[in-house]
Amino acid sequence: MTTQIPSGGRFYTDSNGRQTLLRRRDFRPTWTLDVSEPVAGNYYPINSHIYVTDSEQNAGAVVALVNDRSQGGTSLKDGQIELMVRQFNFNLCAFISFFFVLFYLLFERRFTVACCMMVIFFLMNQQNSD
Question: What is the side-by-side strand order in the sheet with 62-66?
Fold first, then answer.
């Protein structure tokens, strides 16, 4: 979510749903930060809310985002709120499940069924690569 609010690199996140903490982009209060990971170093856990506000407090502009589950969040640019979205890869899940079943069949010495599964898997991958 992007807005025109001049937040000055400051944004607020909740601390386990109990209190709100001021976060400053590329800043740590107890040591001098050497920014080697500008994106990952500015993500914080978001349990209930994140918001940006006008850094000068003149207009009192606030944009807040309330979430229903724990996520990672940041404000990489002034006036911007970004949340990590969990993506589920069904192809990877199917691939892992296939090999779990395959190893189970080999362990149980059901070689014929396991060989048939490997042939089917090989043929499916040949079709997908074309």
Answer: 19-24, 10-15, 49-53, 62-66
pTM for the whole structure: 0.61
Tokens of 119: 């042939």
Where the chain has pLDDT below 50, the residues are 130
HSE value, Cβ hemisphere, 13 Å, CA-based, for 10: 12
User: Residue ranges per domain, the chain?
Assistant: 10-83, 90-129
pLDDT of 101 reads 72
pLDDT digits (tens, 9 = 90+) for 66-101: 888 888 899 988 888 888 877 666 666 667 776 777
SS3 readout for the chain:
CECCCCCCCEEEEEECCCEEEEEECCCCCCCCCCCCCCCHHHCEEECCEEEEECCCCCCCCEEEEECCCCEEEECCCCCECEECCCCCCHHHHHHHHHHHHHHHHHHCCCHHHHHHHHHHHHHHHHHHHC
